[in-house]
Amino acid sequence: MRRIISAMAVALLLSSFTLMANDNPRVDQKVENAFKKEFAGAEYVHWEKLNDAFQATFNFMGQRLIAYFSEDGDLLSTTRFIYSNQLPYKVVRELQEKYSSAEVNPSVLEAVYDSETVYFITVKDGHKEYLLKANSSGSISVANKKRLN
């Protein structure tokens, strides 16, 4: 399940979700009820169907969030964009050690699933761009890399 959610977050960050999305799908009542219970007071809710999950994009408590629900109404994951200066100290320290010469994108995707928080960070180093996955304890791995022209 973690790999599925992690892959969903990476795919979102790489903007491929819109290719698979079914805009304005019919949302099952149990999914809608679960959403309303979890995010009471959410505004500007937009639903999309992604294979066997639903994606809700919405405003909640002054932030733009994305939540993923199973077809059974189980909350799978939530994501939001944060600034790189909001990363946990251990992640910042590890970035400074491993990618000191790289340019860190100020926009970071934070994903929460299975009570774990991970961060997807884009860095550019010379002619390479890396999508890094970090957890709150500071462990960083390369989720994707590409060569820039």
For the residues shown, what is the average pLDDT?
87
Q: How do the SSEs run, as a string of H and E?
A: HHEHEEEEHEEEEE
Q: What is the alpha-carbon Rg in Å?
A: 16 Å
Gross CATH architecture of the largest domain: Roll
Cα separation of the termini: 35 Å
CATH third-tier fold name of the largest domain? Nuclear Transport Factor 2, Chain: A
Number of distinct beta strands:
10
CATH class (first level) name of the largest domain: Alpha Beta
Largest sheet: 10 strands, antiparallel
Low-confidence stretches: 12-20
The helix content, as a percent range, equals 10-25%
Helix-strand makeup class: alpha+beta
Task: Tell me the domain tally.
Answer: 2
How much of the sequence lies in strands comes to over 45%
Q: Compute the number of helices.
A: 4
- Large-scale geometry: elongated
Describe the structure.
Helices cover 24% and strands 47% of the residues. With 149 residues, it is α+β, with helices and mostly antiparallel strands. The chain has two domains: 2-80, Nuclear Transport Factor 2, Chain: A; 82-147, Nuclear Transport Factor 2, Chain: A. Strands 1, 2, 3, 4, 5, 6, 7, 8, 9 and 10 form a ten-stranded antiparallel beta sheet that branches. The longest helix has 12 residues, at 2-13. It is elongated. The termini are far apart. The model is unreliable at 12-20 (pLDDT under 50).
